[in-house]
Amino acid sequence: MQKRYHKQFLILLILNYCLFSAGYGQINEQYSIKTVVIDAGHGGRDQGTSGKKAKEKDIALAIALKLGTYIEEYLPEVKVIYTRTTDVFIPLNERADIANRNNADLFISVHLNGNKDTRAYGTETYAMGLHKTKGNLEVAKIENSAILFEEDYSTNYEGFDPQSAESYIIFSFLQNTFLEQSLNYASFIENEFETRALRKSRGVKQAGFLVLWKTTMPSVLIEAGFLTNPREERYLTSKDGQEYIASAIYRAFKNYKVAIEEKSKFVAKIDSSRIISQTDSIRFKVQIASSGNSISKKSEFFKGFENIEEFKINNNFKYTVGSSSDFEKIVAYKKIIEENFPDAFIIAVDKSGKIIPLSEALKLINN
Ligand SMILES: [Zn+2]
What we know:
Blueprint: H1 2-20, E1 35-40, H2 56-74, E2 79-82, H3 92-101, E3 106-113, E4 123-128, H4 134-144, H5 153-156, H6 179-195, E5 201-207, H7 210-213, E6 219-226, H8 230-237, H9 239-270, H10 273-279, E7 283-291, E8 309-313, E9 316-324, H11 327-337, E10 345-349, E11 355-356, H12 358-366
Parallel strand pairs: 1-2, 1-3, 3-6, 4-5
Antiparallel strand pairs: 4-6, 7-9, 7-10, 8-9, 10-11
Helix pairs in contact: 1-11, 2-9, 6-9, 8-9
The structure holds zinc ion.
Zinc ion binds at residues 41-42, 48, 56, 111, 143.
């Protein structure tokens, strides 16, 4: 029995090696940030929030253009794409589409905050996710109300009602593949705001912003200050203030770029699977369990298997092992897994980390 276990373990080790390294051997280029999409919030008939004089759409555009100029000047290897460079209305889903179509490596949405309490001030940077506080939900509600200026918003956003708290529940089911990187960049930004631009940082947060919903790359939404606060409005309206804010976002971008590219060099040496997962559209995995409750990856239930990945769908947790873009390899892997988990089966996951029907995945890879 003991011997058999060893043999099985060895086969698993070899297979794991194949699935996580050899299968991805064709990748020899290291990941680098090539394209950034800068999204100035609102525009045209959608003015966003406003202060005594300043309109959000104008301040957001001024900061976005300055940010793009800094990137073009100091990091000429990076392509800058704007969702708008003039005072025009652009639907939220179109903004995400622009980033997806251009295979952007990062999406930066620039906004200004507003609050009934005119004393509120400071900066906050958001990644997509479920809000943890009512305040964060309120910010998302206000920003998402931009879709009310769109003609077909109920069809374009799958019936989403920006004003109803219930609508935001969908974000708790979201599989956010790029959350870690988004939070990482967000924290670089808030750090620069605080230490260099000397703003009050209200921190890195999460909430369900429609503009970030469908992007397929790390994405953040910046609230660069409150236009409803008279002092902050003066700062954000001034040339100096806008330059400080834009250069803080620029420096955060440069630091993030260096960090990501260094990490990619390191990862490329030891395990190229993580890089591949960004370029490969479909991955196959072996599902070994599903449960109504979250199970610790260290639980005995998983019989010592490592590389357990958890997927949360509605109120169900699914657990998988292995990962390959090669369907035949995962079929071989499943046969081994079946010795421990007789009911194991193969599932497919798309680029955004969402489980898709196997038949659809096979059709896609055979095209
Ligand atoms: Zn806004």
